[in-house]
Specification:
CATH architecture: 3-Layer(aba) Sandwich
Low-confidence stretches: 1-8, 11-36, 41-66
Mean pLDDT: 81
Radius of gyration: 19 Å
CATH class: Alpha Beta
Number of domains: 1
Helix content: 25-40%
Largest sheet: 7 strands, mixed
Order of helices and strands: HEEEEEEHEHEHEHEHEEEEEEEEEHH
Number of strands: 19
CATH superfamily: Class I glutamine amidotransferase (GATase) domain
Strand order of the largest sheet: 8-7-9-10-19-18-17
Length: about 325
């Protein structure tokens, strides 16, 4: 992603959220904000003020209240700072994998996903609201939506972005949804006993959470996933869902026997959804966990499942 476009997308997101932004400017690189203002110079830093300025919104009867808005604004600030720093370091995306990093995305989850892709020499494009279009997704093989809060992710994508994502998958694209990214594309979501229809509807079934017997929301814990052929893997649970989706292959089970990860086709595309966080690596992601208040003694596995699920989707693109 080019320097100018990444800066423009990043600042546009802040403006779109109704936040007050101050920027320190250096070196030439014009940026056009959504209100038409032209900022001349490279953006070296951002400061977000007025974090409670995000208006309330409605999604399927779920009110995004002031507390959620505040959390979303803190998260998007961290993601924008991360995106700006990544661009400053000159990281060049290979153009095949996109990671959604807009409102509702949990920064540690997104950063861990991006680290895994960088390590595999598959540096991803970072997708903001303005990238969720047919043109913005063109050329990608896979879209990854990390964990976070699915209602806010839907609001960030808006109806046009949701439809573009659906067309991307139906036309042959791959989709990896982690925790919130799994809830996001199911026809129905059951959360704490209440049922909500969701609009993207790529998965013909239900995502249900939190899972009985694991850490109650919003707490988290490390647990053991049951895999086929009597194998297992360690992962983090933080409010993810189980899946009941017609025609899906179950890739992993929770301790209670429900489906923790699934794979299935939609149109010409393929999806892998996981309610468990399989993107973390203990040796390199402890800082991410600590930054966000997750228990510092959490010990995720070596992210082998992340690579396995990703390779499965990539194999479908060949």
């Amino acid at each position: 992603m080019g320097y100018g476009s990444s800066m423009r997308n990043a600042i546009q997101i802040l403006v779109g959220l109704g936040l007050l932004v101050s920027v320190a400017i250096a070196v030439a690189d014009d940026v056009v904000l959504r209100d038409g203002t032209v900022v001349t110079g490279r953006v070296e830093s951002i400061q977000v003020e007025g974090r409670d300025a995000i208006p309330r919104a409605q999604l399927a009867g779920v009110r995004l209240d002031g507390d959620r808005a505040t959390i979303d604004s803190v998260w998007i600030e961290r993601l924008l700072r991360f995106a700006l720093e990544r661009t400053r370091r000159g990281v060049a995306a290979d153009g095949k994998i996109g990671v959604f990093v807009d409102r509702g995305v949990h920064p540690p989850s997104a950063m861990a996903v991006i680290r895994r892709l960088d390590e595999a020499k598959r540096a991803p494009r970072l997708l903001f609201e303005s990238d969720m279009t047919d043109a913005g997704l063109d050329g990608l093989d896979i879209v990854v939506v990390p964990g976070g809060w699915a209602p806010s992710q839907l609001v960030a994508m808006k109806a046009d972005g949701q439809a573009a994502l659906a067309r991307f998958v139906a036309g042959g694209g791959g989709y990896l949804g982690i925790c919130a990214g799994g809830y996001l594309v199911c026809e129905d979501v059951v959360w704490e006993g209440a049922a909500w229809p969701y609009p993207i509807r790529l998965a013909p079934g239900t995502a249900t959470g939190p899972i009985d017997g694991l850490a109650p929301w919003p707490q988290s814990e490390v647990f053991t996933l049951d895999l086929p052929k009597n194998r297992d893997a360690r992962a983090i649970y933080a409010g993810g869902s189980s899946f009941d989706v017609k025609g899906a292959e179950v890739l992993a089970h929770y301790p209670n026997g429900s489906a923790a990860a699934i794979a299935f086709a939609h149109g010409k595309g393929q999806l892998v959804l996981t309610g468990a966080h399989i993107e973390y690596r203990e040796s390199s992601d402890a800082d991410l966990l600590a930054q966000d208040g997750w228990a510092t003694d959490l010990k995720p596995g070596e992210s082998a499942l992340f690579n396995t699920f990703l390779d499965r989707l990539l194999a479908r693109q060949k």
